[in-house]
Structures are given as C-alpha cells and as structure tokens.
Design a protein that fits this description.
308 residues, five-stranded antiparallel β-sheet, 7 helices, elongated
Length: 308
C-alpha cells in the first residue's frame, strides 16, 4: 500500500493548518472589533476557535518530544506568566482597557442601548438592520448627571393602549405612575387573553386593536400600517413637589419622517372612573417649575432602509 502522507508531511500539514486557522481567528477578531456586531462574524471566530484547538492538539501530538524540551527553558515559564497576566487584565477590564474597548464599534447583539451623560440621555433601538431608532433627550437646567431622572419609554397604538415598553426604569417605578398604569393594564389584558384563547386581546386584525409591536414598527405590509405613538415619562425622584411629565410624538410609516420633536403633552393625575383607577394627563400650569427643566428638547430619529 502506498502511503499518501509521510510522517513529515503530516507534521507540515498540521503546522500549516494551525497557522491558517490562526490567521482566520486573528482576522475575524480584528474585524469584530472595528465593525458593528455580526452574528456571522462572531460565529466564524468562535467556530474556527474550536477547529484551531483540534489542530493544536494534533500539533502537540506530532511534536510532543520536541515540546518537552521547551518546558525546561525559563523563557517558556516567563511567556506563560505574561499570557496569564494579560488574560486576567483583559478579563477584569480596568479603566485603560475599557478606554481601548470604547473604540470598538461592536456594541453586542442587544436590540437597545441607553446612555446618560452630562449632555442628556440617548436611547438606541434597532430591531433590524432596516430600522434604527434613536431618541435624544437634551439636558435642561434641572438635569443632574450625578442623579439623572428616571425615564420610561414606550409605544401606544391609536387607541391609547400600551403595546411595548422600550425602556423601563431600573428602580422607582412608582415615580412614573402614568407609564406604570399603562403597562399594568397591558399585562392584565395579556394575562386574560392567555387564559381564554378565544379572546385575542394581544393581537387583533383591527388597526386600533393590535397589541403586537411588530404590526407597527416592522409591519409585514407597510401599506396597511397605522400610526402609533412613542411616549416618555420623566421624573426627578429627589424633587417630591414636582409631578412627572409626559412627552409624545406620532409615528406614521406611510409618511416616514427621519427627525421629529416630541411634544410635552402634560402631567399625570390619578382619577377614578366607575370605581376603577384611571390616569389623565393635565396641561402643564404654573405649578410645574423645576420639572420643566429636566429636558430642554426631545428629538426622535428613525432611519429606515427599504429592503431589496
């Protein structure tokens, strides 16, 4: 029988495979740092890493005798110590390392991102490559970056029903009663629909009855989509004398606009209707002072890209 590969050929082939897979891993790692998140790129890097491990094991098997002599060298232990030290440093991510990572465009696979800075607050939401939403709240004179106000961001259909919370406060939900009331009402309707499958209160073919955010943000048929609203409620928990304020804007996919300013629509007041809790929005009057200074302006930016 003719031997296709000699022992030396196998060693050279494994060494070459180790080098090539390493180049793919290095290249995909660099691209992942400088490009936005891509599941294909991450998949390439991760899966090639497993292939690389297989070839490394084969390489060690083929060259075990020679590698044993390296272990007697002090340089090997010094290199190992440096590698372990760098791994720990990069894992813990002290400030200098975070500064370098901040240069990366890879923000991860999250659909949304919220930032609070001295200039205000910015919310990003991109459910697909064809739809990117950005909400910028410019800081007013009452805004404090050390203690930023609590904010909730959500969507409502034309019937005024909550359909999706985009951003919920990390704490202090009671400081945002209007959003909390809307959200709790939606949760109750959803629970009732799940108990009784014949009553579809979560998704309905009627424009004002659908509670599915996809019917509004990314409708299957844009020509039949209906307008909806984006709302924010903002409150300073350290100022108990001031109410929360609600801002809103209407979004219409049939008449798309890239930039829209949110309007101040009022402050919430608790009422009762037929013995049930209800919340109404009252026009802002002279009693509202510092709360008005939390936000100088609120700008909504939506970038849509037609498919094809």
């Amino acid at each position: 029988m003719v031997r296709v590969f000699s022992k030396g050929s196998r060693r050279r082939a494994v060494s070459l495979l180790v080098a090539l897979t390493f180049l793919v891993m290095a290249g995909s790692g660099v691209l992942a740092f400088f490009r936005p998140f891509s599941i294909r790129l991450v998949g390439l890097h991760s899966l090639m890493g497993f292939v690389f491990l297989v070839f490394v094991v084969a390489h060690v098997t083929n060259n075990g005798r020679n590698l044993k002599t390296y272990l007697k060298s002090r340089v090997v232990w010094l290199v190992t110590l440096v590698s372990v030290g760098l791994s720990v440093l990069f894992y813990l991510q002290p400030s200098p390392v975070k500064g370098v990572l901040a240069l990366s465009r890879n923000l991860g696979p999250a659909l949304d991102r919220f930032e609070a800075t001295g200039e205000g607050m910015v919310y990003h939401y991109h459910p697909s490559d064809d739809y990117r939403l950005k909400l910028t709240l410019m800081a007013g004179p009452s805004y404090e970056v050390e203690a930023p106000p609590r904010v909730a961001i959500w969507l409502e259909n034309q019937g005024g029903y909550h359909i999706k919370t985009l951003r919920a406060p990390e704490s202090g939900e009671d400081d945002l009663p209007y959003w909390q009331f809307k959200r709790d009402g939606w949760a109750k309707a959803k629970a009732e629909a799940e108990k009784d499958p014949e009553v579809d209160a979560v998704s309905s073919p009627t424009p004002n009855g659908s509670f599915d955010p996809a019917d509004y943000i990314l409708p299957a048929d844009p020509e039949t989509s209906t307008p909806f609203r984006l709302l924010i409620e903002i409150n300073d928990p350290d100022d108990g004398n001031q109410p929360s304020l609600v801002y809103a804007v209407e979004i219409d996919n049939l008449e798309p606009r890239t930039f829209q300013l949110l309007d101040l629509v009022g402050y919430p007041v608790r009422e009762e209707q037929e013995g049930k809790e209800a919340w109404a929005l009252f026009f802002v009057d002279d009693s509202v002072t510092t709360a008005l200074g939390l936000v100088d302006s609120a700008l909504l930016e939506i970038n849509r890209r037609s498919g094809g």
